[in-house]
């Protein structure tokens, strides 16, 4: 059986999407990007999935664009490739209603780093690293990195990472807030599954609204953010899940949220 270059495994409420070309450090080809976009669009409509983990097979998370494919005759112009495939992938990732956790198992380079930056949460293996790499081959950071990275680590650090192109180790990524946890390599999958399971236990609609509010935080003034919270809270407060949360509190039991 041929292994798909993007694997989708669903267990309970958690979907794991694994980039799966380990021999090329999961570098992204056109078919792989098309499959990734298809998987993300599928997950967006799957109400049985409440949390998503994005990871890589083998020793890397993702080495970005497959540079061998780029050297092939007839490779599409870069701007076109971004508009046609990379940008829709990043938009689909950001638009997912479920929280998305990047479990960064190894090097995340170029657009591979951008994919990790686009997720809601990031945890890393001690062996992981982030390298923008674009500048090393005379390109600019893309796939949203110029937008996500300053929001994650601030303008000064983002400029260093993007313009010097030095690898950021997992320990440094933790120190500067690029990831929220670093664990031993053989503990990463278990840690990711545990975090994803906790995310999946949350009330789905409140989870979606929370991630949208956080995602919009740097583009709003306080007044707009307060009003957006009020609107979201009105909706969350009218849900059955809120009633269930209150009932569970008074009955001293864990809530069983249904997404209603
Ligand atoms: O469409 C467009 O082009 C526009 C969009 C651009 C988005 C981008 O992502 S541009 C940036 C592309 N990525 C890179 O420039 C990173 C290139 N790779 C590296 O710098 C290094 O491989 C790493 C730092 C990621 C890892 O280094 P290391 O020493 O751990 O591994 P390695 O030996 O370099 O690589 C192992 C294998 O993976 C090797 O294959 P081989 O020789 O054993 O057959 C290597 O060629 C392959 N590989 C790694 N990265 C890529 C790749 N093959 C194709 N494309 C890659 N990006």
Alpha-beta content class? alpha/beta
Largest sheet data: 6 strands, mixed
Count of DSSP-assigned helices: 11
Shape: globular
CATH class annotation of the largest domain: Alpha Beta
Average pLDDT, rounded to a whole number, is 97
Strands side by side in the biggest sheet:
1-2-3-5-7-10
- What would you give as the CATH superfamily of the largest domain? 2-enoyl-CoA Hydratase, Chain A, domain 1
Overall CATH architecture of the largest domain: Alpha-Beta Complex
Order of helices and strands: EEHEEHHEEHEEHHEHEHHHH
Q: What small-molecule ligands were found?
A: ligand T3D
What is the CA-based Rg, rounded?
A: 19 Å
Low-confidence stretches: none
What is the count of β-strands? 10
What's the domain count? Answer: 2
Give the termini distance in whole angstroms. Answer: 40 Å
State the helicity in percent bands: 40-55%
Question: What name does the CATH topology of the largest domain carry?
Answer: 2-enoyl-CoA Hydratase, Chain A, domain 1
Strand content: 15-25%
Oligomeric description of these chains: single chain
General description of the model:
The chain has helices at residues 30-44, 67-70, 78-95, 111-118, 145-153, 155-164, 170-175, 188-201, 204-215, 222-237, 240-250, and strands at residues 6-11, 14-19, 51-56, 60-62, 100-104, 107-109, 121-125, 129-131, 168-169, 181-183. It is built from eleven helices and ten strands. The chain is an alpha/beta fold. Helix 4 crosses helix 5 (145-153). The chain is 47% helix and 16% strand. It has a six-stranded mixed beta sheet with strand order 1-2-3-5-7-10, sandwiched between helices. A four-stranded mixed beta sheet has the order 4-6-8-9. The radius of gyration is 19 Å and the shape is globular. The chain folds into two domains: 6-200, 2-enoyl-CoA Hydratase, Chain A, domain 1 (Alpha-Beta Complex); 204-251, Orthogonal Bundle (Lyase 2-enoyl-coa Hydratase, Chain  A, domain 2), CATH 1.10.12. The mean pLDDT is 97. The protein binds ligand T3D.
